[in-house]
Specification:
The complex is a heterotrimer. Chain A is built from 25 helices and 51 strands. Chain A is an alpha+beta fold. The longest helix of chain A has 15 residues, at 133-147. The chains are: A alpha+beta, B alpha+beta, C alpha+beta. At the A-C interface, strand 9, strand 16, strand 40 and helix 23 of A face strand 7 and helix 4 of C.
Chain lengths: 998, 107, 185
């Protein structure tokens, strides 16, 4: 059984006990424990079930590479699925629950899949659920979805907060083991702006566990001294619990700092996502141990040798009383020695190599540990935990020679440098035959903006698995990152070399009965036999094999399984490992919680919400808002008990009969000034603006170079050199950028300046037959027809406010748009309300605005246009100059398909029965197209019920529409039936424009 | 995520402070121009593997458009320069050749 | 006429740094080519200040001139003096090609104060704050919107567009929350 030892544990504080629960059971651990350590200390070997076969799963690793010990952490608003117990710091009150089992962890019905494993080979889903096709949607998919997935998705809103922050440095060192510390020390002493981040909650990495001594000091002491010196340097920032998640272009790194995972609810942000920008990045990310592939290597109690050592040394937790060590290298002997030193039994070290004569094997033998070379594990015995192992010859086919009782197995298949971050941004790898691993190829590093190497790997992450060269390599990396000559490096006093030999299957001639029990990917249940099957079925590319078998596609992204799987594939294909290649490493290195990626962007500040100066008043009135770009504009102002539809009708009729007030502040306003301003606007608009007299307004259209209409609005000439261009609400920033683009990049010698003054003004539309009466009540300037005729403007005061009053109309009514400085916008609005109280004044919203303009046949950018419509399609030829030699879009409009008389062109549509044509409806034509669909001859662009006319009205684009006045076209409705509509003039109301020109 | 130095204000801006403007040094083709010239101006974009000239706007900054010579394969930046030119400048060509001695400008 | 109202009515937030919405300040956008004859004299006549160098702001009391772009400056002055100052500028620049326009109402202005004020901005802008030169005016973004800011003895002044003042206040408040300092002392 696994248990807590009476003594030791370099990371735990036995004076601080911490209570937690696992599946509701109360357990005790100590401060400094990881959840995995505390579970093992409570003899909780079984921690979860695998994805496909629901096999029992125990802790296998001690770090972020853990594939098995995934738990649901917390409850309700703090529930987090798929949390790795090996990196979860224990805290008092922690609640964890195991995943992927039903009804209970100990008794799981899904384990039936295990007995059917022979019927569930690689590619099972692809092969099986193909026919009959309708079954997929209604049967296969729902059942598969029900049984798929690991943790439960949280349902409640996350109770925690998250944030992001930017930081810049010359050198970023990722990894706080001795290599990272040494590299940081070199660059830090050189005065570089330095960040050192470490994913764990402590410094030093593996060296203290492995008992290394540095320059005569125990590793722990050297680590403490180095951290102390780094902390004292003002140019150095140190962060624990901070994972380098991804390396991107030009030195950009995302790092996830788990600020308060271990102190939930203390008011600090739970995670902080750092957006680091570094001149050079040193990856000192160490190495990850590989499992060995032998039958039953997934039974709880089979663990990585390094992990066993970590649990014993760091947490004083023994995974078992009797632990068999199985290895293809010297490093695993440290585990046997550590177990022995802790007073535990190591019945045998099973070494697949023919010889084991290094320093560590000699030390193990000297302690009286039995060492068997050339041997292998034929099979692990046990179900929910290990009970023993059967031994055989590595060179044979698995004939059992001996059975050894034990309750844990510590395995080591050698170490793989953590090359993920090196690879994220294009760093290439090279296969190291001598050390049996991929390592960074220094000749092909990821490069930064100036073409130099952006990432420098250091220590074990650089493939230096031999401790003798470790700190020299780290020193060189730190110096290279700092751009200095390498200083003298400290040395490891008691170095060893792992002397790894390639052993990919144990025993090497294992028959299929054994190979189908050798797990490569513990989480996704991919076995040696699955990869071999994929190879037999023709999967030669590792990328395809990965997707076919799901090897390495679990939440651990194959940290333990990828190299072993690749090796098995290369053997099956009879090719060398480097020829088969490796899969692409993609960020993030370990999962980053969505909350951290969202950062501050949630709730009220999910996105910028733009508000006019009058927005607060609209809210107070209970306005119903609609989004227009990032603005929220009142759609209508419903009264108590009034539907939106009724409110819109009331607002429209009131504008037609009395006077309405519209907050038009969102309209774009761009000042264009200079000696060449007129010439510039003549290029920008399809019409002529240079001839506009001072004090007058003119409607204009803007096209892109393709000829398509992109914006419209009224231009006012302020003085000889100055124009004010109104744009649509959504167009203000876009059109300003469009202007600047042409001025900066094409006509840079023209003397024109622009300024976007959209937000300088609140703009209030006063619309309706009583509009003039209202403004006259405010008083201060002459707003008569004579003084301020239609399509003119004047500066003055109204009600004491400094204003610019435009006589423009988007409704066909007598209409003024009054611009006042935004800081006075709300006060002016309220002054209008007061003045209009006895004139029947009502505010109106955007829907009334839309209907009012549609009744007049005025187009709306985005309704009548969709990026493929030219002004000529809309009957706006009158706004296009025939005389101008050039304007943006003129050449585009000369193209044959844009001059085709068959184009769909704008008309009004009057339904025969008075109903409203559905939004987006198409007008059908005779016959069908090659897909058997009805041919079409046009579509509706705007369609409303007009309360003014008491019937449905619409505008639409119809083939040769204006030539077909009086014809009837058919608009089928969703769900059956059609609406018949007559083609008419698009101006439905006040065709002669008498009402707006009074 | 790229960083580019704005040649006007000297800020090393990151990609999120910039807006892209695609290929640089296009020659406008106006009314009366032949169809193939107009097609080339509107639609025919180079997609070289290697040095490429692009337009960028320092949108969250000084607001100015500038041009960048960049390697599309490695994301190296050879240099940035103001937009008020009609073709690659001798200075930027020299910067490209300093790192890509064999580079020749395309059509 | 009413008193000019700032976007948020001088909202405040107190966390590990303090946030205040101030203003409205008088602001003028001045656009001209930098070699325009008489430009520096005109600005001096209007505000009594020298022209700033590239990416710098020259401040004196309640007035300032900031470099915004190679052909754009931001003039800051008391709100009530904008009209007269614009008149003086236009008069001084005469026929020289320029654009001077009142943008006082188009902006929201915030103060971020306290010894850790920079850490509030570090959560919002990709600009390298530790590389900010004395007297530097930096234009960048705060999360999803454009902003400009500069430092002084007591903290930072940040300017955004008026319509997003509520969003910016939300950002600053979120970033300044007690317990969330980036480098707790």
């Amino acid at each position: 059984m696994s248990t807590r030892l009476a003594k030791g544990g370099r990371l735990i504080d036995r004076s601080t006990a911490q209570g937690f629960t696992f599946n509701g059971r109360h357990m005790k651990g100590f401060a400094g424990d990881t959840l995995a350590a505390a579970l093992l200390a409570n003899d909780q070997m079984l921690v979860g079930r695998s994805f496909k076969y629901h096999r029992p799963r125990g802790v296998v690793a001690s770090g972020p590479e853990e594939p098995n010990a995934l738990v649901n952490l917390g409850t309700a608003a703090r529930l987090e699925p798929n949390q790795r117990a090996t990196v979860t710091e224990l805290f008092d009150g922690l609640e964890a629950a195991s995943q992927n089992h039903w009804p209970s962890l100990d008794f799981d019905v899904g384990v039936l899949n295990n007995y059917a494993a022979r019927m569930l080979p690689a590619g099972f889903y692809y092969k099986t659920f193909i026919h009959p096709r309708p079954f997929w949607k209604h049967m296969f998919e729902p059942v598969i979805r029900q049984s798929a997935g690991l943790g439960r998705a949280p349902k409640d809103r996350d109770a925690d907060r998250y944030e992001q922050a930017y930081a810049h440095c010359d050198v970023l060192v990722i990894g706080g083991g001795i290599a990272g510390l040494q590299a940081a020390l070199v660059a830090g002493r050189a005065g570089r702006r330095l960040w050192l981040i470490e994913q764990a909650s402590h410094w030093g990495g593996r060296a203290p566990v492995d008992g290394l001594s540095i320059n005569g000091q125990p590793a722990d002491a050297w680590v403490a001294a180095t951290v102390a010196e780094l902390s004292s340097l003002p140019n150095v920032t140190l962060r624990l619990r901070c994972t380098g998640a991804g390396v991107y272009d030009h030195g950009y790194v995302l790092a996830d700092e788990r600020v308060a995972d271990h102190t939930p609810g203390d008011g600090r942000p739970k995670h902080r996502l750092w957006r680091l920008r570094a001149g050079r990045i040193v990856t000192a990310t160490g190495a990850i141990e590989r499992p060995l592939s032998f039958a039953g290597n997934d039974i709880p109690g089979v663990m990585l040798a390094g992990a066993v050592r970590d649990f014993v040394v760091n947490f004083a937790v023994s995974p078992g009383d009797r632990t068999v060590v199985v290895t293809n290298n010297d490093d695993a002997y440290r585990t046997a020695i550590a177990l022995k030193q802790a007073g535990l039994d190591v019945p045998v070290i099973v070494d697949a190599r023919a010889r084991a004569d290094g320093v560590l094997p000699q030390a193990a033998r000297a302690m009286g540990i039995r060492v068997e070379t050339g041997r292998a594990i034929a099979k692990v015995k046990g179900g929910k935990r290990v009970t023993g192992v059967a031994l055989c010859l590595q060179a044979g086919e698995g004939a059992v020679q001996e059975e050894v009782a034990c309750d844990a197995v510590a395995m080591s298949g050698g170490w793989s440098p953590v090359v993920h971050l090196w690879s994220h941004c294009g760093g290439k790898l090279t296969w190291d035959d001598a050390q049996v691993c991929f390592r960074p190829d220094p000749a092909q590093p990821p490069i930064t903006h100036d073409g130099s190497a952006m990432v420098i790997a250091a220590g074990a992450a650089n493939g230096v698995l031999d401790e003798a060269g470790l700190l020299a390599d780290a020193t060189a990396a730190g110096a290279a990152a700092a751009g200095i000559a390498a200083p003298e490096a400290p040395g490891v006093d008691n170095p060893t070399a792992p002397a790894t030999e390639p052993v990919w299957i144990m025993p090497q001639g294992a028959p299929v009965a054994l190979r189908s029990k050798m797990w490569l990917d513990y989480q996704n249940d991919v076995k040696v036999s699955d990869v071999q099957l994929a190879a037999r079925e023709g999967y030669e590319s590792v990328e395809h094999t990965k997707r076919y078998t799901t090897l390495g596609m679990a939440t651990d992204q194959g940290k333990l399984s990828n190299i072993n799987g690749l090796a098995v594939l290369s053997q099956a294909l009879n090719e060398a490992i480097p020829q088969v290649g490796t899969t692409t490493f993609r960020p993030p290195y370990t999962p980053v919680t969505l909350g951290a990626l969202a950062g501050e962007a949630r709730g009220e500040i999910f996105q910028p919400l733009r508000r006019t100066p009058i927005h607060g008043w609209h809210e107070d009135q209970g306005a119903y808002f609609e989004p227009v770009g990032l603005w929220r504009r009142p759609y209508c102002f419903p009264r108590a008990g009034e539907s939106h539809e009724k409110a819109v009708h009331r607002e429209i009729l009131n504008v037609r009969q009395n006077v309405g007030l519209l907050d038009a502040s969102t309209l774009g306003k761009i000042i264009v000034r200079g000696p060449d301003a007129g010439r510039f606007l003549d290029m920008l608009y399809t019409g002529v603006m240079s001839s506009l007299p001072v004090g007058k307004c003119r409607y204009g259209l803007m096209c892109n170079e393709n000829g398509f209409l992109i914006d419209d609005g009224v231009v006012a000439r302020i003085d000889d050199q100055t124009f004010l261009c109104h744009t649509t609400t959504g167009g203000a920033d876009r059109i300003h950028a469009h202007m600047e683009d042409w001025l900066q990049c094409e006509w840079w010698d023209w003397q024109v300046f622009t300024a976007n003054v959209t937000e300088q003004y609140a703009q209030v539309a006063v619309v309706g037959p009583k509009a003039r009466a209202l403004l006259e009540k405010l008083g201060g300037m002459d707003v008569s027809k004579e003084a301020l005729p239609f399509m003119t403007f004047a500066d003055g005061t109204l009600g004491g406010f400094p204003v610019r009053a435009y006589r423009i109309s988007f409704s066909g009514e007598l209409s003024y748009e009054i611009a006042v400085p935004a800081s006075h916008g709300l006060a002016f609005w309220q002054a209008c309300l007061a003045a209009g109280a006895d004139l029947g004044l009502m505010p109106y919203g955007t829907e009334a605005l839309h209907v009012l303009r549609a009744e007049k046949g005025f187009i709306m950018i985005g309704d009548e246009t969709d990026g493929t419509v030219i002004p000529q399609d809309l009957g706006l030829g009158w706004a296009i100059s025939k005389k101008k030699a050039d304007y943006l879009g003129k050449r585009g409009q000369e193209r044959s398909f844009l001059t085709d008389p068959d184009r769909w062109r704008l008309v009004g549509l009057e339904t025969l029965d008075g109903s409203v044509i559905p939004d987006g409806a198409y007008a059908v034509d005779a016959g069908v197209n090659p897909n058997g669909q009805r041919n079409v001859q046009g579509r509706v662009t705007s369609t409303y019920f007009s309360p003014t006319l008491g019937r449905g009205i619409a505008m639409g684009l119809i083939r040769r529409g204006p030539e077909r006045m009086g014809e009837t076209v058919e608009f089928p409705k969703v769900g059956g039936g059609s609406v018949m509509a007559r083609i008419v003039d698009p101006v439905f109301h006040d065709k002669d424009g008498e009402k707006q020109n009074v | 995520m790229l960083t580019l130095e704005c040649p006007y204000c000297g800020v090393w801006a990151e990609e999120t402070e910039l807006t892209p403007g695609y290929e640089a040094h296009l020659k406008r083709s106006g009314p009366g121009s032949p169809d193939d010239a107009f097609e080339s101006y509107m639609f025919a974009r180079k997609n070289p593997k290697g040095a490429h000239f692009e337009r960028w706007r320092h949108a969250y900054g000084c607001g100015k458009w500038f041009l960048a010579a960049r390697c599309t394969a490695t994301l190296e930046v050879f240099g940035t320069y103001p937009a008020q030119v009609s073709g690659p400048t001798p200075g930027i060509i020299a910067k490209i050749r300093a790192r890509r001695p064999d580079w020749e400008p395309s059509e | 006429m009413s008193e000019p109202a700032s976007a948020l009515g001088h909202a405040t937030f107190d966390g590990f740094a303090s946030i205040r919405e101030i203003g409205p300040l008088g602001m003028i956008t001045l656009r001209a080519r930098p070699d325009t004859p008489g430009l520096a004299q005109a600005v001096h006549r209007a505000l009594g200040l020298e022209m700033p160098a590239v990416r710098r702001i020259v401040r004196q009391g309640d007035r300032a001139v900031g470099w915004m772009a190679p052909d754009e400056w931001l003039l800051i002055l008391p709100y009530a003096q904008v009209g007269d100052t614009l008149d003086r500028l236009r008069e001084a620049l005469g026929a020289a090609h320029h654009l001077a326009v009142d943008v006082s109402d188009a902006r929201a202005v915030f103060r971020i104060e306290g010894p850790k004020a920079a850490e509030v901005l570090m959560k919002l802008t990709p600009a390298d704050l530790s590389a900010l030169a004395p007297g530097e005016l930096r234009r960048s973004r705060a999360a999803q919107v454009a902003c400009a800011f500069w430092a002084d003895e007591a903290g930072f002044t940040l300017v955004s567009f008026r319509s997003v003042a509520g969003y910016v206040m939300g950002l600053l408040g979120h970033s300044a929350q007690a317990g969330s300092a980036l480098f707790p002392s």
